[in-house]
Amino acid sequence: MGFARRGRRFRDAARGDASTPPTPTPTRPSDATAGARASAGARAIVSSGHGDVDAMLGGGFALGGVAHVGGDGASASAATTFGGYFVAEGGATTGHRVCWVRRGGRAAATATVPRAVETATAATAMEATAATAAATASDGLRIAWQYRRYLKAGRTLDDARVGRGSTATTARASSSGTRKNLRAPDFCHAYDLTKPALEETTARFEFAPFRSSDDDGGGRAWARSFEFIESFVRSLEDGEVGRVLVEPETPSDESEWIECAKFARALKGLTRDTNAVAVLIVPLGSAPPKWAALIRHVVDCAIDVQPLDGPTSEIEALLPDPHTCVGLVAVRKLQFDGALTPALTRMDRVYALQLRRKRMAIRPLQFRPEEDKKKKNDGGCAAVEGTGLDDF
């Protein structure tokens, strides 16, 4: 309980209840706040490191907030990919500092951080222009049009395009037509998942291992992690942005899950009204329902990741490309403390998670016309029968 009490004391100091409170942080970013921008909810936000994740969250992660990413144990690698993008963006953005608490050593942790690359090259742009010109100059036969349609769908999954959403709008295609969702321009870097981040980038990360092997059940591993994060948050200068990523070992029994819930509550009190944002990655699928619900209640944002054990006939019909889809992503909760209005997000409830060598992408599911009609008749709240998405 010691680290939980310290989290409450730090929260009270941030609110001004202590004799020596820290300098208050503005809710909207100013010229002194590095790499942040204002959101529709009147909060300063920073990028998650991936444009599709930012669009799903209505712009990005709010400063002073805590997010949870996870699912069951099988989705741990996919959830870790979210964390890799998060810390990679911190290393690539001037004025951002990274605090990382993770199981294992530094070398194993930094190997999961993707390398920042240029958004586009002249050669890539020339190839795309030539392909578009060749498609336009074809004879226009209906059978050729169908062929070009499938070629175009394949090009959208090219390594140079998957996971990049630099345009102002994104399209959701279905058999009944095309629906466009408004999307703000990306303000994150592009990354290559096949290459680890440069050593000079990860060397600036403040890293602490999470070791519960020497824990006696009293929560010392969680307390040590909290003390390390508390020192990092207190050391942030004016205008600096702190990114905190916590990837602990999965709790093995209920007593450890209790400590995890206490840690999440203390972390929320610590980051409140600061220029820090924290992401906790732990698989709640293996947690007792009581403590899983409590952790989701404490955090400001909860993202669930569910792996695909193998495409079924129903799920495969909904996936934008079954061969590149590795899981499903859903936003369970999105309500950052202090926001004037809820975040403006895309209207889809469940997304497809795609991984294709160099990049990750999050795409809306493809609903068939009869399913679209059913959703309209039911007021837009009905799930697709037989897919299991209503439980997800």
UniProtKB/TrEMBL annotation:
Residues 28-39 have a biased composition (Low complexity). One of its GO terms (biological process) is tRNA wobble uridine modification. Residues 1-39, 368-392 are annotated as: Disordered. Residues 368-378 have a biased composition (Basic and acidic residues). InterPro entries: Elongator_complex_protein_4, P-loop_NTPase. Pfam families: PAXNEB (PF05625). Pathway: tRNA modification; 5-methoxycarbonylmethyl-2-thiouridine-tRNA biosynthesis. Its main location: cytoplasm. Belongs to the ELP4 family. This is Elongator complex protein 4. It comes from Ostreococcus tauri. The lineage of its organism: Eukaryota, Viridiplantae, Chlorophyta, Mamiellophyceae, Mamiellales.
